[in-house]
Write a structure and sequence with these properties.
The protein has helices spanning 82-86, 89-95, 97-102, 119-137, 142-147, and strands at residues 50-56, 59-67, 74-77, 80-81, 108-115. The protein is α+β, with helices and mostly antiparallel strands.
Length: 177
């Protein structure tokens, strides 16, 4: 049993109240309503865009469609022309088939930032991103794009390597002795 000599003394906490100065009325200063000029937060109509993301394997494409007043095809991928970036007409056609299938290739300027994967994966990622942008700009295009298979996200990715195996499924060669 603890005696008074071995017990710790109790310490009481004292809480101090904060003193607040007395509020004084200010009747002389009244705020007058100030007219604020209406500033549009949206950029001009020529610079508005529709944005969507497309993915394939490890490639990610961020696509922007700008309305095109001139009517000439302008497709930029990573600040280069699409032909220069993809290198072949086949990959360029794969990437922008949703625009050509709907007949809107001249109606929009396309700006794409593509990262990851290879050129084939990036081309398929751009295709999905462009199709999603077209739906945002005009929801009536959805049945056409859906029937052509442009809205399906191809989820196939490379399978990971497992421990103890040489590749994802390839086992080391078995030896009897």
């Amino acid at each position: 049993m603890a005696t008074k000599a071995t017990q710790k003394p109790e310490v009481k906490k004292v809480v101090k109240k904060k003193e607040t100065p007395k509020a004084t009325k200010k009747t002389s200063e009244k705020k007058k309503p100030v007219a604020v000029a209406a500033v549009s937060s949206q950029p001009p109509a020529s610079e508005r865009y529709v944005y969507a993301v497309g993915r394939r394997k490890t490639a990610v494409a961020r696509v922007r469609l700008y309305p095109n007043a001139e009517g000439a095809e302008e497709m930029m991928v990573n600040k280069r022309s699409s032909r220069a970036y993809f290198g072949t007409a086949i990959l360029e056609n794969v990437a922008f088939t949703p625009l050509r299938a709907t007949g809107l290739a001249n109606a929009f300027r396309v700006s794409v930032v593509a990262r990851g994967g290879g050129l084939h994966g990036q081309a398929d990622a751009v295709k999905l991103g462009v199709a999603r942008c077209l739906i945002k700009s005009d929801p009536l295009l959805r049945p056409t794009l859906k029937a052509l298979g442009f809205l399906t996200r191809d989820a196939r990715v490379v399978e990971r390597k497992k421990p103890g195996l040489k590749k994802a499924r390839r086992a080391p060669q078995w030896a009897k002795r």
